[in-house]
Each structure stands twice: as C-alpha cells, then as structure tokens.
## 1
Amino acid sequence: MKLYRIALRNIKRNKRRSILSGTAIVIAAFAIVFMFSLEGGMMQDMRNNIFHYVTGNIRIRNSDYTKYESLNPLNLRIKNYRSVIEKCRADSNVLAVSPRIRFYTSIYRNDKDYRGIGIGLDFNLEKDFQNFEENLIKGRLPAPGKREILLSSGLAKEMGVGAGDKITMLSRNMYKGMSEMTFKITGIVRFKVESFNKSFFYMPIDTAQRFLKMDNSVTEILLLLKDVSRLKETVSGIKKLLAGSGQSLEVAPWTSIGTWYSIIRMADVTYQIMALIFFILGSTVIINTTMMVIYERMREIGIMSAMGMTGSEIVSLFFLESFFISLISAFTGVILGVGITLPLTVTGLDLSAYMKGINFDISMVLHPQLNVRSTVLVFFYAVAVSSFASFIPSRRAARIEPVEALRAL
Amino acid sequence: MRFLVSLAWKNLSRYKRRTIITVIVIALGISLYILMDGFLLGMEKDSERNLIWYETGTAKIMDRDYWKNIDYLPLKDSFKPSPALVNTIKSSGFSWTKRIAFTAGMFDETGSLPVKVYGIDTKTDENVFKLKEALVKGKYLKPGEYGVLIGVWLARDLNIKLKDIVTIRARTRLGVYQAVDLEVKGIINSPNPVINKGTAFIPLSLADKALEMGGRVTEVALGMPEWASPDKKLILLTGKIEKSFPGLVVESWRELAKDFVSVSEGKRGGTSVFLFLIFIIAMVGISNTMLMAVYERVREIGMMRAMGMKDSSVRIAFLLEAGGIGFIGSSAGIALGALLTFFMVKYGLDYSSYLGEMDIGYRISGVFKAAWDFKAMVYAFFFGVIVSMLAALVPAGRALKMEITDCLKYQ
C-alpha cells in the first residue's frame, strides 16, 4: 500500500484531530496574512500622503530655496514654470505634475490675527495629487484667476467662517513688500489626515501669482511617476532635461527629503519587528500542535512498527500527513485572509470606535493592502513549518522499540 | 477535593511531555503578547516623554484668561505666584518651576523668524524639564545674563553659531515693543522637533525685566518623576487651587497637548488591531493544544467513570489539571515576557545601523524601547489560565455525555 494513501486515510479517519491541528495552521496563516495587509495598508497610506501632499515622488525647487526655506523666500523661485513642466513631461515616466506656491499670511478678523499657510496651485492638475473634489465638504472649488480661496476645515473652524464669507489677508510678496487682498471663500475642504487640515488654505495659482507679484513663477513643482521603482533614472533624466532651462534648479527624489523618508523607514523597521513576533508565535502554535498530534499516537506507531513498518516509512508517513493537513489548512488560512482583506481594501477598516472622546469629526479609516508576494510567502511558510515539525516527534517515535511504543500512554 | 487536587497534580507530572508542550504554547503566547504590548506602549510613551520633558511638564498652572487664549500667549494675563500657591504645590508632592512664554521675532543678518521664547528659571527649570540634557553645544544659561539658548533647526535656518549676537523683538506686558541683543550661549538638540524648530530660551530674570513683568509669570510648570502616576495628586491639587486661587487653572499635559493626544489615540486604534491578532493566535494555540490533550484521554475518562467516579468530580479534576497547566504556562509566560520587556526597557532594540546616516533634524535615539504595562500582564495571566480551563471543559463535557462503554472504546 502506498504511504500517501495511508496518510490520507489517517487524516480522514480521525477528523477531529485533523481539524484541530488544521485550525492552528489556518489561524496562524490567516492572522499573518491579515497583519501583512494591515501593515501594507498603513505604509501605503503614509507613502501616499507624503507623495500627494508634501513631496511628490520628485520635487523641483530653485536650488537655494531649501536652504532658506524657513524664511519663505518667494524670490528664490522657479521662473517660467510652464516651460519647466513641459520639459518634465518629456520624460515618459512622469505621470502627473503639480506646480505650487507656498506662502504665509496673516488674516485679520474680529480683532485677532490668524496665521494661515497658503498654497497656490492648479486645481485641475491636483486631481492626481490632493484630490480636492473628493474631500470637499462644503461649497465648490475656486475658479482660476478669481479672488477665491478654499479653506481647510481646521482654519475655517478656528476663524469661525464658512463658505461665502470674505476674508482679508496680508502677506509678504516676492519683493519683501506687503500685499493685501480680500478673497471670497468658495468652499471648505477636509482631508483624511488631520494635520493637513490645520491652518492651510488653497487658491488658484494665477491668483497667488498676482497676489504675491510672482509673474509666472512658482516655488516648487512636484512630480508623480508612473513607475516609482525607476526613481533614480528619472531624477537624472529630469536633471538633464532641465539643464538647459537657464536657471539652477534642485531636482530631489523624495528619498532624499530627509524627515519624510526616515519616518517611512522607521515605520518599516517597526513593522518588521511586529512581523517577527507574529512569525515566532505562529510557528510555536503550529509546531506544538503538530508535535502533540504525533506524540499522542505512540501506540499507533508501536502497532505499525510491530507489523513491520520501517522507521523511515513511519517518518515519511507522518511527514505526509502533516504535509497534506498543512497544505489544505495553509490554503484555507490564506484564502480566509485574502477574503477578509479584499473587501476591507475597498470599504476600509473603521477605527473611529477607538477614537472615542475626541472631538475630531473625522473617522480614521484604514485600507489594508494585499501583497501577493508576502501572501504566497505565508502559504509556503505555514506548510514548511508544520511539515518539518512532524520530523521531531516521528523520528523519535520510529527509533523506540515497538514494545515500548505499544505501552506508551 | 483534596483527592481531586492531588489527582490533577499527578496527571500533570505523569504526562510530562504533554504538559510541557501545552505549557510552552501558553507561555510563548502570553510572553509575546506582553512583549508586543510593552513595545507598542513604549513607542507611545516615547512621544509622551518628549512632550512632558520639553514642552508641557506634567501640568501647568496658568491664569484662567491666559488658558483661554493660550494660542496667542497673552502676557497681560500673567500672574504672581504667591508664597501660598508655592506652599500648596509643594505640599501636593510636585516639583515646580516658573516660566514666561512669549512670541518674538528673532533677527539676524539674513532675516527674521517668529519664535517662541521661554524665560526660564535657571535654578529650578531642571526640576521639571530636561532642557539641560539636550544641550549639544555651549553652556547652560546663568541667571540674569544676556544670553539665549536656541534650537538646532532655528540656528541652521538663521545661520547662527555659538557666541553670535541675535536680536529678539517682542511686545512687553504693557504692549510696547522692546528689543534685546543676546549672545547665543548654547544650541539645543532635543528629541522634540518643536523645540528644535522654533524655540529659544532666556533667563527668567531677563525676561522679567525686558517685558516689564514685575515678578509675574505666565505659567508655573509642575513635574513628577516618570514612574509616579500624577493623576490622583493632580485632581487633589486642582481642587485646592480652585478653592483658594479662583483666578488660576491647572491643566494636565493631556489638555495642553490635545492635538498630539488625539493623534496618538488614532494610532493606538491601528496598533490595537495587531494586538488583537496576536491575541487570536495565542488563544487558538492554547485552546487547540488543550482540546487535543483532553480529547486524547476520553478512554481515561471512561475508566474513571467505570470505577465509580462522579461526573462532577471528573469535570473538576480536568478543570484543576487544565488550571494547573494554565497556571504554570501563564507564570512562565509572565516571567519570560517580563524578562524580554526588561531588556527592551533597559537596552531597547538598536536599529540605528539600519537607518544609517540620516539628518532628521532632531535627535532620535535610534533605539526602540518598551515600557512596562503591569495591567496587561495581570490580564494576560488570567487569560492564560481561564482559556485553558474553558478549553478543557468542552471535550471533558463531551466525554461525560457518552456512554461509559463508548468512552472506553474511544479511539
């Protein structure tokens, strides 16, 4: 009789035992798949926020701007920004561009000065970046060229203004003189990340240029790439394309923009440690269950060897049993993990219940991201661990005398 | 009952291998849960510390109107800390220091920047804050000198070096502009980016003179050693202050740093999902091993019943045995978890080599450290014991429902 037939029969014969040892594998595989997706989702979320709100994949600035950044040096600008954008677009890996002007204002209202951080941008181009339409909670987007602005919910709340109100703001323009202008608030925007809702407001880029006397220049241009893995080549490609533009520009990949990249890397380390803990615990559970199953069957092993089965046959029999069980269970576990993750990727995992007692009216929703590679890895890991766990007890069992094994409890 | 206890004990020591396997699962499940929990708590505590040690203290006493408008740091809403107030604070067991906070423009050849300036009492400030430890260059302030300590980012942005002269300009308490030239005495690089980015420190007596404060301060910051829980004492102190000093308020660091607290609550929401997953694996591991251990002994149960043991006694015997395994496993788990946590608290996990050379702009230790969470340990202990007892109950109950002869024939 072939060994694998006996193995399959053994699995079927004692269903409860098979199910018990299977569940351990199912749960371990499921939990690890789910954890990976959750971590993937968190990392993806962080990356996306950084790419879309802060640095893009590549950030272009005047080469002196970053040095004096805290002084908001509008004079250190990118001139003729449209032609710079055209040049960047010549690189086939560039997916989207976002020219921006960042400036600081003081808004005088009801005897108080409020500080606001203004971002002048092209609302049409922002669809691939900040996606204002989706996050608009009141009113509409400002129209190009008009004296209209969009407020973040935090700033609107702080000043007690809403869509339709008019506010006057004062800002230092490019020539270090003061500019003052009155704007109509057309809408309120609220992003999913709370820190982007404080003190920010947005206006059409041409209005900002007029307000700050910047002509056709901007302070930075952000680029999103089609293929982020080709970041390095694209950076040097863009540098070449911009070399003849007659101005000295800094082309920085997001990985060199210190703080953000290191935050991502720190998060990455944290998650790797967590994954390690999961793997250790998962392995222990699987190994112990498998060992338990085999040790409890000492008498059976005794009978088999008394009837003439060789040691190596016994070892391979138990190996096959474990292998079949783990194959089915690991598959079930992975499918369960995928089955739970996929719908959550779309709907999101609402964590707002944990945020009780906070007066933020925003829900924290996490979108797990399934990673094919780690999911497959989990499957093989579970199969390998439980199959090899069978070796320890079965090899020992195969070595003892049949009489001893028969008497075992 | 004594018989049952000794039977359970005998069974435990008789089936050594089974006991060991089960104990290992329980112990590892519990210790890893504890480690994970301490690890997550440690990360949270780390940011809390940076706030408490560098910005907020454990709590602050302020004028009622000042707290209302704290975003604007209104100097006119300052107060004189009376000896009675100081006595009240001292008798409540807090360490304390006085500070004057104000906004100012800081000038240099390159330009000006808005900064937040603290007048600090050079003698008592370290009772509450850890500024001295964050000094990376130069010297700490001497009382009354025309010196300033500035954050490392601010220094870089304004291109300021040690011994340079900077001018700060601010409105005094009475609303007139005042400018002072100060020598840069030291550079601060703290783990708190806010301090590095836009904060400067000058001696309290200088701030008092320059801003025409006449002995008034904007805040009295309270401190407490890290291991001590300030909450109860804070409530007591708040009560006393409300009664004797109706013009003042006491606000804890949680109130002072509301934004931070709510963000970290959100993060906790995310991390608790991880803890929950660990919990699930541990629970399944423990209960499966236990279920299997008891199912394999249906025959034994049949024998015990055939010999006249009452059903309830069998159940209790198995409960005791499972409880015993749970107890041993949980104890081992707590011990191992405590050991791991101890190392993680004391030495932490050094990942600085992984991060390599990096200029984040603020000091990161590059070491993950855990924190003690004794409550979680107690919960985990009982969880281990109870889950294994419950898991044993299911198969034992099933076996008791069968006919004795079926039990004896059971495979």
## 2
Amino acid sequence: MKLSSKDFLGLENVSAEEISYILETAKEMKKTVKSSMKKVNYLQGRSVVTLFYENSTRTRVSFELAAKYMGAQAVNVSVASSSVAKGETLIDTGRTLEAMGTDIVIIRHPQAGAPHLLAKNISASVINAGDGMHEHPTQALLDMMTIMEAFGTLSGLKVVIIGDIYHSRVARSNIIGLTKMGAQVNLFAPSTLLPTGIEKLGAKVFTNIYDAVADCDVVMGLRIQLERQKKCLFPSINEYARFFGINPENIRGAKKNALWMHPGPVNRGVEMTSVIIDADNSVINKQVTNGVAVRMALLYLLTGRE
Amino acid sequence: MRTLIRNGTAIINGRAEKTNILIEEDLVISTKADPEAKADKIIDADGLYVLPGLVDAHCHLRDPGYEYKEDIISGTRSAARGGFTSIACMPNTNPPVDNAAVVRYIIEKSRKEGCVNVFPIGAITKGLEGNELSEMGFMREAGIVAVSDDGKPVMNSDVMKKALIYAGQFGLPVISHCEDLNLTDNGCMNEGLTSTILGLRGIPSVSEDVMVAREILLSQYTGVPVHIAHVSTKISVELIRQAKKRGIKVTAETCPHYFTLTEEACRDYNTNAKMNPPLRSRDDLEAVIEGLKDGTIDIIATDHAPHHFDEKNVEFEKAANGIVGFETALALSYTELVDKGHLSLSQMIDKLTVNPANMLKIDKGKIERGKPADIILVDFDNEYRVDVSKFASKSKNSPFDGFKVKGRVKTTIVGGNIVYEDI
C-alpha cells in the first residue's frame, strides 16, 4: 500500500485504510524508539527540514528525532532568525529550501491553509505540523495510536474532548480521524469556544460535562490559552477551571479503565487538575513516545512512495 | 459622422422590439430610424440586443496609488469589455478621495485616457478613518456623485448620522459598507461549517445585519436616503424589505458573486473566493435572489476589485479581498437570474442601468433622443467559458475562471464612439 498524496496536510482527505496503515507501521517504528540502538536506515540520504512559524518543543523535537532515528539529515529553520524576518514569502522560502535538495518540509504555521499553499507550489513533500485552527494531523495519529494500544481498536469507542474546541486544530483532526475510524466523539466546551457547525463533522455536542463524559473510554483535555479571557471568551481562569476543567469529580461517570489524555503542554489546575495528570489512567507521556513513532512511520511512507 | 445601428432588438416597456438607432456625433438623434437611412457607419445588430450602456454603482479603479493592480486606462477598458459605459469608483485609493484635488485628478485622467464615463465617489470621512467628515461640498463641486467609506464601515453611529444629514444637504447619496468590525473580529470568510472545517476565523452574517439595521434606523430618524452596498445576507434582505414597506428611503445593491457562489467556493483555501462581505451560505444566496425578484434589491453592482497575483497567491488570511467584476457581471446576471427564470431580461437590465443611475442621480442608463449615445450590443445566446487571461483588467483575480456562462458583449459605444468590439 502507498499513501495517495505526496503531502500529508490533514486527515480530511486521508482514508481510514491509510490511517490504519500508518498506525500499523508506527507500531514497528516504536520498537526502534524503545530500543537502545535508535538507528535504522530507512531515510538514509534524505533531507528533512522543519519550518516552524510558531513555537513548539514537542512536535518539532519529535519530528527531528523521528528523521534522525531513520538516518535522514534533519535541519531546523528558525523563522525568527531566517529570511522570513526579512519579509520573504512562504512560497519563496519553500522554493529556496527545495532548491537546496530538501525532500520533506515539515511546516507549522499560525495561518490555516499555509501547508496547502506550500504543497501546491513545491514538489517536495509537505507535512502539516499544525496550521492555525485547521488541523494537526500527526497529533491525532499519535492520539489514535495511544488509544489503540490500550483497547486494540478504535471502532465503537467513546471519546470525549473537553476544552477550547474553537481554536483547536488538535480537536479538528481528532474529530475527523476518530469518526473515520468508527469511534464516537463527544464534545464539551464553553459555548463561546464551540465553532459553528462542528456537530456536522460527526461529533456530539453536550452542554453538560457529566452527560458528555458518561461511559467514555477516553477523556481528552485541550490546552486553554490563558490570554483568551481578554477576548471575552471566558471571564477568568478560576471560573474556567471550576466549570470546564477536568477533575476527578466531574469525570467519575467515565469508564473505570478510561484513558486520560492531553496534547500538552498542560496548564496544571486549569484544564486538568494535577491529580488527573499524574494518575495511572493518564497516558500523556505515552502520547509523546508514540508521537515519535507515528512521525517515523509517516516520513517512511512518504519517502517510500516513489 | 453618422452611425446607424440597425435590425437590433431593444427592450421597450418590458417588451422586445426591433430597433434602429441613428447616432450623430456623440448623440442619439433617433431611436426609430429608417433602417435604410444614410450613415457613415452601419452596424448590423441582427440577432443582438441593443441596450443602454450598463451603469456600475460600485467599482474600484485603484488609481491613484495602486496602479499595479489597475489604473483608469485598464479599468475603463475592463468596464467597456463588460458592457459598462458609466462607472462610479470608490474612494479607497492612495491618497484616498477625501478632497477635491484627488477628485479632479480622477475626472481629468478619465476624460483624457479613460474610455467610459467615470463618476468618482468621495469619502464620507477624512482618510476613510471614520472620525471627521470629509469636504463633501468641495468634492461635490469637483464632480463626485456620492459619498462612501467603502471597504470600511463608519463604526461611530454619531458620525454616520451627521454624515447623512450633511451629505443630504448637498444632495449626495450616501453608500454604506455595512459591517460591524467588532463582530467581524479579524474573520476572513463567512462563519459557518466551511470556516470551521478550514479552521479559518469566521465573519458572522450578523456583522452585516446589525449595520444594515443601524443605517435603516438612521435614515428613518434623519429622513435622508441611504444606499446599502453589496448586500449578502438573508437578514439584511429582510430588513431592507421591511424598511421599504415602512416608507424609509433605502436602496440596495448586490453583486453577481452573492447570487452565484457560496462560502463553499473558499474550499481548498481558494483566495480568489475571498472578498468582503464574504461569500455566504446557500440560504443567504437564495434570499438575495428573492430580494432581486421582489425589488428589495434595486441594483446589481460589480464591486470590481482587482488585485495583483502576488496579493492572492498567499496564505488565505493574508490574501486581499475582492474579485475582478466588470467582465463577468452581465453574463453571470443573465446566466444565474434570467436564464434560470428568476428575473425577466428587462428587470435585469433595469438593475444594471436605470436603477443605479437613479440612485447616483446621473442622467445615464437609457437610450434617448438627444442624449449621449452610450449603447451596448449583446448576444445573450452566446455560451462560453470565462477565460481570465482574456480580461482587459490588469488583474485576473476571479473565482469564475472556466465558468460556463451565457451573454457576450459584442460592441460597446460611449458617446457615439466604439470603445470595445468583440472580435
């Protein structure tokens, strides 16, 4: 099986079969991540550039390590000190990187659709590492991998996503990916942070956290950006934590063996209490490990297309 | 010099009739000429409609300041190719049209180098900033036909109230770009399922509606007429319909894109479908057509808004708003409204000729004896695909490239001169 596109821009145009295939491949890759000899040569001779227009630790390091574990040359372009700061357009930056022989450009950008614009204008593969409020497809893949490790399947599971759905590319990719794989997705958020029409993507919107969480196999929290209160989206961090934060009391209706997840970085005590973050049910660190594995799988499959 | 247009079809009192028009120099001297009359030039209009040159109440010529997008020469050629013989251009140039000097520049350049009649619209406020009234009196003397801060709303209601009263004294129509910038909140397309899927910040339809409601109330309070630019939402149409019923002096325009496309056109981050107001939902589109049918919407305007390729070939949020409008407006109106049975040909022509002329209070939009010969010949049976590379405009930003449409302008005559011929 081969991936249908040269690029990986979002889960919207990826089939359930392709998702399964990437997740299967990631299982194999995880062995390398877990071993003491972290070196395979699948990407030997390839060059991978991470082009990040937003700050990131885990996603960027995760991609870089994934490329390096497989023997690729991996270079980070730090936008603040690059020619972007001199006013170069995204397309020109992409063409410059391509002219240097880059095989894969991994881009994070504050504006939705930026990876699509880049992909249309260069022949190198483009991977979306998060674009504005649109998608963060590799995050959803690593979340799905983590859930599958626990339950063996995604089909028939109930996953509740709680928090700032409106601004969340993680939520969009997970809603699209999980529903494609046969899971049910419930949503709970302050009503100011729910995007119009989200239920038409196949998710169920709840106005009460207890109903949203009931019988769920997975409880996923989302990061709330603290500066959103200035935009009248919620009145204060305290009030947010009280009514929309995840704590042991309000998720007691979830299944006993439910997984507690968060894409990180977490605001402890805001969207999730520390008791939840550090509990046995929490798989936040597993998510990070699986992040490297799914990104290895993706890099491998994209370079193996030709 | 005498020109005879013979064997064409005119629309007279809503009915198609054979017509023969005789032009001497720049004036129409007969609308019921003898088809065998002697003339220096004879144009055979057999199989073609002979219509008054179209009047556009809303366009952007980008001159002065943004000549890399369009200028008065290319802009008026683009208008002529689309069948527009009189166009009213918005003041958001650089410098903006907020003083008489810029008005005189546009009028003089248009007379010397333009090929259609250009009617400048002045700014409501200095610098289009929404704070202080511009010198409407001086600009009126220099030749503006209306005032507008188009592209931006006048957010301060008190400023708008005073603008209406002051402009009213000079007999200047006030054209309002209705948008509440707080509700727009940096949005870049219509708020709805498509914006959610694309992860783009939405502009809610209510951002337009609240300002339409405000303008109606201010017009009612002051007694001064107001014209609503580029109506795009269902609720706006309904508000205007109710206001007209209550006798408030409100007029309204929409643009071909609002009755042809929906927000879906923004899919795949298509920046050629980015405009302000944004393309809306199917419900809104249907309401706009309903508004055109029952007369709530008086005018079809182009909102011709050329932009350079580099301003559109960028991230969606960064891309400039607007589309090239002149060269597709007539064909889209015919294809979407007349061919689909929503409007009669005569109704459509009124919305593109006499209605905008009446709103702007200019003596245009009719073929009359003794008046300048601004006439177009159109073949409405001609079906073709829009090809942006053929545009006379300097810019090619149109979401309609490749669209199948009906209605081709064959000849455009301004003041007795042929300024465009389809060959």
